[in-house]
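Course assignment 3, question 2. Fill in each field.
Student: A.L.
Task: Predict the tertiary structure for the chain below.
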Amino acid sequence: MAADHPAPHGHSACNGVSGGDSGGESHGFSHDHDHGEGGAHHGHDHSHGHHGHHHGGHGHSHAPASFGRAFAIGITLNIAFVLVEGGFGLLSGSLALVADAGHNLSDVFGLLVAWGAVALGKVRPSGRFTYGLRGSSILAALLNGLLLMLAAGAIALAAVQRFGDPQPVMGGTMMAVAGVGILINGATAWLFMAGAKGDINIRGAFLHMLADALVSAGVVVAGLAIGFTGWLWIDPVTSLLIVAVIVWSSWGLLKEAVALSLGAVPAGIDAGAVERHLAALPGVTAVHDLHIWPMSTTETAMTAHLVMPDGAGRDAFLLTVAEAMRQRFGIGHTTIQVEQDAAACTLGEARLV
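Answer field:
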């Protein structure tokens, strides 16, 4: 976190950055600046902490550190499976096994992207990237969402073509390989299940593995059903059903990843409720220039201007506001600017950013 510096005297009203970052430890900065212009008196109060972020039930929570092990295990298992499946396909002359090995290799890439984003998120802030590279987790989630949709499209296309040219499904060999795929992909998906709800980057990895497990399960089910009935159309129908499940489960990931990449308020945080909470604080007569945006898939930041004619915004007040934002809304980085004259603020109009 970059160190704070007192705003210089004489700067124009409410253009400086000031407030409280969501920690429990105060640096003790409390700066009052008297501005002759317009008679406005602006209190710029800072309270910054270095405690770990604890997000409430309405916001995002940090993914446990153990996901590093989950990525390592998942990637290792899937690379081994790709090598075995691809090698067996080449030896047996099965184009289907080779193609499925290629599909599983793309999922290894998805895991690597998600894991890489977790690693980049730990890069320390710099003069240019003042939040570090936390936002890479949003880009990884977006990329994985697109990969899932592309995979679903490829499966759907193959299924539609299969309707016009039904092909017999390989018997024991294909089903045995698919059974191993269910175990490996299912186990890998289970490793990420705990973080799939609170972090869309982890959810992307989870959905990749779940989709592969479903595809493998579809191969087994279709093989058994065709073996009993001889109906070749069961194979493409099963594939289309799997595509529907993949699209249904992945659409939310893709939509949220696009929204976060555009700086939208993270899902689960009610911006209106945040504004009402701030407006109801003692001494606050108005709230404006409120912004809530994602720093990463697990961290949220907020800035707001509070109009307090009595100038009561001091460290204790700011710490209380920051704690409420963290506990009630899951916003871990809060910056508050306190003003005494709303008319003097150049960002007072709601239409201004």
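Instructor remarks: Confidence is low (pLDDT under 50) at residues 1-65. Residues 200-229 form the longest helix (30 residues).
Grade: pending
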